[in-house]
């Protein structure tokens, strides 16, 4: 056992640390400012705190210039993210989210890359009503953003439904047990009376400052790595023996975000450090989180994620510290094997005669489009569905646990509304993901969700020319290097640099176990298409049997394999 003296980095705490410290456990002046009708916005300090309540202030960037010209304040509106552990929503909860989207938001639902709902475009005066209605449906938005543990993901895979339900229960338990304990949310949004006198310890795990940065946990069930377990701060890989869940391999220190031009920031993959039983999972999560709480960087926020703490202290040191805090040692990691990080579409039969239908939802956007009434179709299904909806980490949706009797009726609705399992699309499009980006994301440098489908129309032509229509190649686009669509784990990745310009990355592994490498910088559509034209034609002609595109570009020397996030920029 190493006996090192561990230290957090020196340096003046960032302003967010001050805001949290002075917030009286995430209250700040949120209650008051939300009542103010003079501005549709809220002050910056409160907006920082707002994230811990699952929301934050945005403005419609499509309208920004025009409003500036007219000397109006920006078109302020709120994004609201639901906490939905494991991505499971009941049909009545789906209907509530649909209704709220129409009543208070922009009439659409965003299914996120972390298996939950986001509403966009909520006006300040409607926020409280929206949160209260979400709460009445037995959901909440606590800790969906902010410097705390976020929504815990779990494999949505319908193939192993008995293991899914067990793993789902663990993800829900972790998510619930790791919630902040402050009553701020209940007081601000749900009108809970403040209890006189303050209990001695409000936040036994988080403390007054919460975490240095966001913290993410995901649980994968091999062979599917649909949740991209290696991108998590803390990942659990289910180990199944003789059809029974015996525990989890534990992986630490993953994350996708970076800043253009700053080599001290990089995407990183979590590394497996051992194995624990299911009943030890909470203990592991809590102790890992407290290590990050104590040693994470509270001075430079862009180096504050747990991946940097692990890389700075060293994997072995962090493992030792974890075992010290646990008071027991992790077992040796068990063998595991992933074969993909995407979704499998269409109808699948699970246990007890139940059926599951995985629907392709391009960019995760549920809306009624001119020629595709996706939102109405899903509403009609939710009205008769007795199973559940599972939001996937690839922004898709599973209509899950459908009885054989109900399947006929649900299938009729699927057909009536033309809801697609994506099978008439190219496999490349089915394997695509794009983050929200413009017009709502304040950090976007380029389009993603609104642009990728159009780019894919053109890439599809290249795919068809080369006979690659059924080849699954993962392709991901983000509007900035924060990596919300886990671009660094797409075999083809695009990161927005400026309007219409992207950095292009290649060479991630199809099973999510290797990062991609920068291939071209700051290129526009024409160049993207000409690069892909050459690469896909070579792939069609020169690939080995069953060779994935990400492996091909490395074997053929197009890009170097990234062996560790720390050499991502080399
Ligand atoms: Fe994200 C910030 C959207 C998954 C890394 N992300 C944001 C914000 C809140 C912008 C902001 O802070 O001003 C975006 C809101 C846009 C909007 O208009 O809705 C945003 N992130 C999203 C979503 C909705 C993308 C999507 O299209 O699905 C995803 C919501 C997930 C959820 O339900 O909780 C989303 N974000 C991710 C992921 C993927 C994941 O977790 O599996 C990542 C990469 C993994 C990681 O965390 O390393 C991710 N988001 C970031 C970062 C970079 C963090 C970093 O430390 O590196 C930011 C910026 C930040 O935190 O300062 C960010
Ligand atoms: Fe916004 Fe960037 Fe995340 Fe896309 S990757 S949603 S542009 S923060």
Automatic annotation (TrEMBL):
For whether the record's keyword set contains Transferase, the answer is no
Show the catalytic activity.
hydrogen sulfide + 3 NADP(+) + 3 H2O = sulfite + 3 NADPH + 4 H(+)
* One cellular component term from this protein's GO annotations in UniProt: sulfite reductase complex (NADPH)
Please list the residues that bind siroheme: 484
Does the UniProt entry include the keyword Cytoplasm? no
Q: Name one GO biological process term.
A: sulfate assimilation
| Top class in the EC scheme | oxidoreductase
Subunit text: Alpha(8)-beta(8). The alpha component is a flavoprotein, the beta component is a hemoprotein.
- Tell me, what does this protein do in biology? Component of the sulfite reductase complex that catalyzes the 6-electron reduction of sulfite to sulfide. This is one of several activities required for the biosynthesis of L-cysteine from sulfate.
Q: Which family does it belong to?
A: Belongs to the nitrite and sulfite reductase 4Fe-4S domain family.
Q: What is the name listed in the Swiss-Prot or TrEMBL entry for this protein?
A: Sulfite reductase [NADPH] hemoprotein beta-component
UniProt lineage: Bacteria, Bacillati, Bacillota, Bacilli, Bacillales
